[in-house]
Design brief:
The chain is mainly beta. Helix content is 0%, strand content 57%. The strands form 3 sheets. Strands 3-4-5-6 form a 4-stranded antiparallel β-sheet, with no helix packed on it.
Length: 135
C-alpha cells in the first residue's frame, strides 16, 4: 500500500511597514516535539536527537523492537515514520537543498543507530553512523 502526503515548511510573511520596502519571510518554529506513543509505556524508551541538519524525535518499543520517529531535515518536517528496527527503517530524502537517505537500525538488541547518507546541493555532505539510544 502506498500513501502520499504533501508536507512543507510553515513560513510567516510580514508586510513592510508604511514607507518601508522590506518584507520578512521567516520559517516558523516547529515548537516542542511530542513523542509518539509506542506500545506499552513500560517498554518504551523515547529520545530527542540532533546532528547538524537532522533532528529526530521518537520512541522505541523495547519489547517488540518497533520504532516511531519524526524527522526534520534542514528545518523541513519530513513526517512521522515507523517500523521494525531489526528490518531497518529507511527514509529516502529528496528536498530542494538536500537528498539522500536516513536509515534506523537495531544493534546488539539494545541500541538504536542512524546512518545518514545525505548530500547538500550547496552545503556539504553527511555520511555518518550515530548511536542515538541505548537501554
Amino acid at each position: 500500500m502506498s500513501t502520499h502526503a504533501e508536507l512543507g515548511a510553515i513560513v510567516l510573511v510580514t508586510e513592510p511597514t508604511e514607507g518601508d520596502n522590506v518584507w520578512i519571510a521567516k520559517q516558523a518554529d516547529l515548537g516542542t516535539p511530542h513523542f509518539p506513543h509506542v506500545g506499552d509505556p513500560h517498554f518504551s524508551k523515547c529520545f530527542g536527537w540532533l546532528f547538524e541538519i537532522v533532528t529526530a524525535t521518537g520512541c522505541v518499543d523495547t519489547d517488540r523492537f518497533e520504532l516511531t520517529v519524526t524527522i526534520t531535515v534542514m528545518g523541513c518536517n519530513l513526517g512521522t515514520f515507523g517500523g521494525s528496527l531489526p528490518d531497518g527503517i529507511v527514509v529516502k530524502v529528496d528536498l530542494f537543498a538536500v537528498s539522500g537517505e536516513i536509515r534506523f537500525d537495531l544493534k546488539y538488541r539494545h541500541e538504536v543507530w542512524v546512518h545518514l547518507d545525505l548530500k547538500g546541493k550547496w552545503c556539504g555532505s553527511w555520511d555518518k553512523d550515530c548511536k542515538i539510544l541505548s537501554w
